[in-house]
Amino acid sequence: MMRFPNEFLIGAATAAHQVEGNNVNSDFWAMENVPGTMYKEPSLDAVDHYNRYKEDIQLLIEAGCSTYRFSIEWARVEPEKGHFDKKETAHYKEVLEYCHENNVKPIVTLHHFSSPKWLISEGGWESVHTVDHFEAYAKHVVTELGDLLPFICTINEANMGKQIAKIIKEMTGSLKQESSNTESDTGVQVGLNMDTNAEMMNYYSALSEVFGIDSEKVQTFLSPRTEVGELIIMQCHERARDAIKKVNPDIQVGITLSLYDHQALPGGEESVKQEQADDFTDYLPYLEKDDFLGVQNYSRKIHGPNGVVKPDEKTRVTKMGYEYYPEALGNVIRFVSKHWSKPILITENGISTDHDEERVEFIERALQGVHECVEDGINVIGYTYWSLLDNFEWQLGYEQHFGLIAVDRSTQKRYPKKSLAYLGKINTTGLPSLSANVQNKPGL
Fold this sequence. Notes:
Protein name: beta-glucosidase
Keywords: Glycosidase, Hydrolase
Number of strands: 13
Shape: globular
EC number: 3.2.1.21
GO biological process, one term: carbohydrate catabolic process
Strand order of the largest sheet: 1-2-3-4-5-7-10-11
Family: Belongs to the glycosyl hydrolase 1 family.
């Protein structure tokens, strides 16, 4: 058995809109229910985590896990601009208190993709006023709940808008496929449904009526982002971080980034370098005062002379279509550590699959890479698997299964999977030596 340090955090993660249900004041609720929606189905009651959080956290505890990452829903806390709902703030206080009472370290994300509907109507994530709004929200949360918040991630996957912008350029023909053996980067680590550009345009036209603004001004967090929008996101992070530290300097504050393991074939080195800059190194100047970095990884991308190489039909893939490559996480940690000396927290890593034995193997292989990084002196302080529950995967609905716990949504009954017990066992007894099939790591 290979043990992590006693203080190493192992647990799982969720996002409020994906699990709580009935988030009626959010932009995502509006987008799910608009005519011609791009969503395969609405979130509705989700998996009712809002009311069943004690049951879910208890399952995490019984498995042996020590941490839980979840998000506070801005649209619940501030359903109308400037009006903070005391009842909803009290709800999240109860969740935090339950974690502390049961020796579970809470890691809270202030913004995990979904936003108040009113924010989008006022210009959303391309409006400079959003910086002030986000700062006020962060200040409210930490003023009311700060003593219960050891870790805060201000914004989840702050680089996601840039990645989505690349996909939109591909769809509109700005990026050309250069050969039958290569393709432009069309993958993001989030559930999006982008079948045709025409459908998206019709969808955004319908959204203009919902939000009361012109369609081109509908800027949700997952809209393709301009350079101005990129700056606004980072200003939101900096202002929120500074506000949090002013109220309670003991809170550890960071941000999370979506990072692929970029690997180069001969001639692909420049493509890798550009992707790594876009995904990570360009953001470093804004993170200098942060206490930790949240790393989120699900797979790798292989680059040739003409860009990202399309996997062949023999490549093992997950239900989301990512290459099944758990070793990507360790590689990403090593890359990040070359530019970042402060603590690294794995805030998301996981797999969508209908076969739980694949999930157990994925966790084993991914954590083997993490353990090797820790042994080599890299400052990794924890790992939260995505996700605790099978949940609402944004535009893809409920067909993706990332969870350690299955849910029958007709009854909301929980069914813990063997992978949950396996993850908890690592926390209590250590990481088992690699099995024979794991030792045969896939290469380039």
